[in-house]
Design a protein that fits this description.
Lyase 2-enoyl-coa Hydratase, Chain  A, domain 2, single chain, 2 domains, lyase, 10 helices, Enoyl-CoA_hydra_C, alpha/beta, 2-enoyl-CoA Hydratase, Chain A, domain 1, 4-stranded parallel β-sheet, globular, ECHD2 protein, 8 strands, Enoyl-CoA_hyd/isom_CS, Enoyl-CoA_hydra/iso
Length: 222
């Protein structure tokens, strides 16, 4: 996906009705020794980092339970859409654990430190509407009979992104992701570098020409 220029947006969904991702299999985890657990979680953390580093926008379609590592997977995505009936939570403390695949870092960056601490300390599960109210998800929708309402809304969101200039969208994602980790002056420099890379693109020239000619732009990602 990372190197496929035809890919404009990635949507993560589950094939299991009622479950986005239920997190670790604790029966499997119980059979591991301490070293195996450490290696397993390290690999899981690396996977989440790989997802977060994808150059194109990513959307998590949460149509059911997103617990523990399941919510960490959703947090590794750029955008999240949830059914109002979905259940989300970093429930690790209820099992004698703490989030180990990015949850302690990505949740506070998403909803703020105090709310993240409350959810992690308590291991509380929240529904889609509660998640929307605290900014954990971008959109919440009533579940449908097929059980894929969040996925359908995610597709609609993806189709809003698709017509836009791919190089510019990727540059915007990179500037945001890098800039949010530094002071604003450094962030402005990062934005400047991303913008400078966009200036000579054919898509920018196409955008200007389309505006001048009063027609929809035809972006090619070059």
């Amino acid at each position: 996906i990372r190197f496929d220029e035809k890919v404009r947006v990635v949507v993560f969904k589950s094939e299991v009705k009622g479950v986005f991702c239920a997190g670790a299999d604790l029966k499997e985890r119980e059979k591991m020794d301490d070293a195996e657990v450490g290696l397993f979680v390290k690999r899981l953390r690396n996977l989440m980092d790989e997802i977060a580093a994808l150059p194109v926008p990513t959307i998590a379609a949460i149509d059911g339970y997103a617990l523990g590592g399941g919510l960490e997977l959703a947090l590794a995505c750029d955008l999240r859409v949830a059914a109002s009936s979905a259940k989300m939570g970093l429930i690790e403390t209820t099992r004698g654990l703490l989030p180990g695949a990015g949850g302690t870092q990505r949740l506070p960056r998403c909803i703020g430190v105090a709310l993240a601490k409350e959810l992690i300390f308590t291991g509380r599960q929240i529904d889609g509407q509660q998640a929307f109210s605290m900014g954990l998800v971008n959109h919440t929708v009533p579940q449908n009979d097929e059980g894929d309402a969040a996925y359908q809304r995610a597709l609609t969101l993806a189709k809003e992104i698709l017509p836009q200039a791919p190089f510019a969208v990727k540059g915007g994602k990179l500037a945001i992701n890098r800039g949010i980790e530094v002071d604003i002056a450094s962030g402005m420099a990062i934005e400047g570098m991303c913008y400078a890379q966009n200036i000579p693109t054919r898509d920018r020239q196409e955008g200007m020409a389309a505006f001048r000619e009063k027609r929809p732009p035809r972006f090619i990602g070059k």
